[in-house]
Amino acid sequence: MKSLIVIPARYGSKRFPGKPLAELAGKAILQRVWDIAASVCANRKDCEAVVATETPVKPGEGSALIVDYCEKHNIPVEITPDSCRSGSDRVWAVASARREKPEVLLNLQGDNPLCPPQFLNALLDAFDTHRETMVATAYTRLDWQALAALRESKKTSPFSGTTAIIGSDGNAKWFSKNIIPAIRGEEKLAAVNPFSPVCRHIGLYAYKYAALAFFSQSPLGEYEQFEQLEQLRFIENGIPVRMVEVTYPAGFDAATSGVDSPEDLARAEKLIASAGELLK
User: Between the CA atoms of 48, 51, 56 and 60, what dihedral angle is there, to the nearest 10 degrees?
Assistant: First the structure.
């Protein structure tokens, strides 16, 4: 199955300007994300990867710095229209312009430097295991300690970290920047089960070409706008989102995957210092 990994990387983040090129333990965040994608493609047939960024406005500023970095480090990069409203729109802009259309597209956000390569493989494999899958994304179930860490991080970065409700059919029922579900009788639950009922969504998506075409041509969903979570557009339009459970390697955890803020960057630095590099 021909697959294309697209890494959306915006320089102009409101919460963390210049984030893709910020250094994380001696490497640019974007370099770390690219290394993850490259390691996956190296072990899969018919797999490519590319960075997608905004249209540069001035040389030496903004997204021009991303283009310069990619060219200097031999990373394929494509310019996408400023009309792109989300990372998924940037993935579509890249895919739809290709002469040979990929069957599956994987959106690996350029601010996800601690995403284990096996997570990407698990999503791509889901399309073979469940042929009806149109959209797939990853999650991990939080133990009580990880849930406490997520609650603590939200005190300083309330919009960092997304949780999900998953149905018995393996599809998502909902996503939120709030921690869902609310839990009553938490002490009793913790006494009998090491895992909480909270599922931490990992910002990693894969789509069939047709599903992403629909997404790109559809208006923003009502709740998508409230939460600023693009995956809600699929749910609001009745398109199932298959959830793929993954487990972090020893020493890594779901509380520090994406980097949305300088506080997240500091947490990621500490994690690498204690657990070592993700790619050996």
Answer: -120
Strands (E), 31-134: 47-53, 77-79, 104-108
23 DSSP β-pair partners? 28
Give pLDDT tens digits for 135-156: 999 999 999 998 998 999 889 8
Encoding tokens for residue 221?
A: 């969903």
pLDDT per residue as tens digits for the range 160-203: 889 999 999 999 999 999 999 999 999 999 999 999 999 999 88
Torsion sign over Cα 84, 7, 205, 146: negative
For residue 171, what are the CA distances in angstroms to 78, 152, 208, 230, 242? 32, 28, 16, 16, 4
C-alpha closest to that of 30 among 74, 4, 66: 66
Residue type, 96: S
Q: Which two tokens stand for residue 86?
A: 């989300």
| CB 251 within 8 Å of CB 274 | yes
